[in-house]
């Protein structure tokens, strides 16, 4: 089917968009819509039109894959042609009416929406703004405040709310929107009245113009969303223009701001992340028709920090879980932590008391591993000790039914060794959750040498079912995210020893975009969790002083009752002591740029090695793992995308200056002028 087709019946043109999977407004659709607009204008038999879309959704936006070069005709030009028509045009909306799709809807004279429609401007999530007149039309239709709410948060609203605020004219049951739009256009033709256009000033324009503080107020309300990113200010500039200037002048402002954003590093990074997030599930060597294993019941061994969170993930997805412990106290503690977590969620109003009971009802505690004989999947989350894991897997092999998947949540241990404890290594896989497992969105699916295609494909599918982003990893010490970030943590400790103050290190990484710097992060994770190599022994020394971080007595920082931190005199003494014991000389404190380079270049180098060794399938997977596992700021694109933007040559010279040998792949990419992403 053509991307856009036009049929005419009873004087009404039915313009149908068909561009699967999401009807994105790529070049062919724009050309088709432009031709349709010309036909509607010039064909005397046509007295009105509806614009609708086949498949699951009205256009979900511009075709992001075209960016940053958008071939003519531009979206805005086509949309303006539709608005200018003097025959009524009604949009029939359903599904995800987002970005350019919503701009197309705004270009029509009226909008009918199926009850299941979601309407939104998610451009800000791509470092962009609604650049096809959306920033100019929406404030005229619903007012600057509501329009900015949608554009700054990027969150879509439902059809009902859209009707309430005047964004759509009529909401109808799903599936009837096309007929309803035709009925509306038929009535409009009969009425032959003036057509409303979102290019014209409105009551809202007058009202917003008379409100001198409106933009300061909105900026204060949404202040958090402006941190580190450039799109929100550009959005504000455009909406100000919509309120203060005539449409044509506002469009000039919008176009120039949109192009500035489209060619920015932040938008390049965020668009990379959009596609990378969707690509992780694609495993090139596993055929699409690989049979999946049904997972309807699950066993989790160990009800500690991870086991409890993992059990919650399954209960949240409606899958029954048996939770196995060795000691009754541990089981009781584990179950009560789970209950407390659910009850806290209920207290915040994000779950009902019935939900709590329903989910708890899906989790059965047991002290008998034999109870796992009938489950489809077992996830082991016992202490990180090979000796214990060997025993658990030997036993599990004797108990689990044929065809059951046997998974380990190990962070660092050799999955192939664990698999070798069983007579069915092809059924063994790593399912590496991040702490807290019920919250963190990353799942590393670790492929052992012998893991079968079915087991891997099921692991990836399961990740999605648990609403996580699965990333495939090979076997190595730390897999992707932990291995990648270990050099970052080590470098931060070395930096402390060389004399850069902890608060300056943390501030520089916060300014880069992390929620907290590496020293504060260590305090949060717990100083007893990571063991550092060589002469970097501060965490061990602090643990000896019973300082384990935020959870016990503070760590590098002291914390007051409001969790405000100040560098701890005890920690400063420890740093001094370790420095002296190892004969380390202090150097002048590093600048913020030097801190970022010294901490991140080693991460890039590790990422290059991870890629070179085939531990990650693609650079984008590494970026996703860092963003979802370690809160790497997505507007920096993740480590590999950031490296490409920052310059591979610069990173190589920086590594050499630090005495670190650059990875082979990094050098190759730099020498051939290519990039990771
Ligand atoms: N352009 C190009 N491809 C797109 C796309 C878009 N706008 N939206 C989705 N796709 C692709 C995805 O990459 C994916 O491809 P794949 O199957 O090859 O991996 C496929 O469509 C299906 O997407 P999802 O897996 O995300 O499907 P879901 O059903 O989970 O979600 C969705 C659907 C909510 C529409 C989600 O895809 C989405 O949020 N899309 C992006 C929406 C967006 O950001 N729109 C604004 C674009 S910018 C713009 O319009 C600028 C304008 O103002 C000028
Ligand atoms: P934990 O110490 O909180 O919990 C381990 C639990 O396993 C304890 O309750 C213990 O009683 C139980 N257990 C020990 N042997 C058992 C056996 N034979 N049968 C049944 N239960 C047994 O440990 P945590 O932090 O939950 O770690 C578990 C695993 O998850 C480790 O392999 C760890 O490396 C991994 N992991 C930990 C993360 C973290 O941040 N804590 C993150 C990701 C993975």
Walk me through this protein's architecture:
- The strands form four sheets. Strands 12-11-10-13-14-15-16-17 form an eight-stranded mixed beta sheet, with helices on both faces.
- Helices cover about 50% and strands about 15% of the residues.
- The model has no long low-confidence stretch (mean pLDDT about 95).
- The chain folds into three domains: about 5-265, 2-enoyl-CoA Hydratase, Chain A, domain 1 (Alpha-Beta Complex), CATH 3.90.226.10; about 295-475, 3-Layer(aba) Sandwich (Rossmann fold), CATH 3.40.50; about 480-615 and about 620-675, N-(1-d-carboxylethyl)-l-norvaline Dehydrogenase, domain 2.
- It starts with a strand and ends in a 6-residue tail after the last helix.
- By secondary structure, the protein is of the alpha/beta class.
- It is globular and about 85 Å long.
- 3-hydroxybutanoyl-coenzyme A binds near residues 103, 126, 130 and 134.
